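Sat 14:20. Reprocessing the chain from the morning session after the first attempt stalled halfway. Input below, unchanged.
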Amino acid sequence: MISELDDLMKTAALINNSGERIAYLSERFIGTPYAGNTLVGSEAYEEVFIINLSGVDCFTFLDYIEAMRLSDTFSAFKENLKLVRYRRRIISYENRNHFFSDWREFNSKLVRDVTSDVGRSNSCKICKILNLKDDGTAFLHGIMPVDRIINYIPAAGIDERTLGRLKTGDYIGIYSDHAGLDATHVGIFVRQPGGRVLRHASSAKNVMKVVDQDFIDYTKDKPGIIVLRPKSSA
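Finished this time. Tokens:
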């Protein structure tokens, strides 16, 4: 298994374009079963550093792909996964990146928020208190609420001009219009000869695996999208 991953990452490392590298790596995950709650930890339990490539949820799928993008060996992948998943590589529940916009805040050397660049006049901005529900309770116990500006493109603003500015390998967050959340789901935008797809770990009962779904069909009834773009690899 490790030797196969080494070979996969060494081949991917030869692809200079970060987005195409992400597309190449993520394609190998298509069909991987959806598995929720694979990361062990809470404010009451010690965090455990977990690598589980046999089952992923939408966010761990992105964790693994981004860490692989930065790596050419399994050893490097493990260190980069700590970098991607945790602030300052400190393995603890409190330091884990729980929200999609945490990548923008704490992984800014790896990705940048291009939502406003992609959406332009169609993009919106809102201030949210992440992790604080309308009733004053928290989504995640032990994590302090934080004020954050969220850029997003409403579904009505995802027109052909907006789609034309998306790039293969862009990380897509499905914007949440609920208090306390920035995104309810995440995936990867991939431009293919046959169309544009969202590659993601779907938890839909009739799917439950990593799949490609038509991007427009998937997002048309969602509140909107957030777009993070990987920075070029060294």
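The chain has one domain: 2-230.
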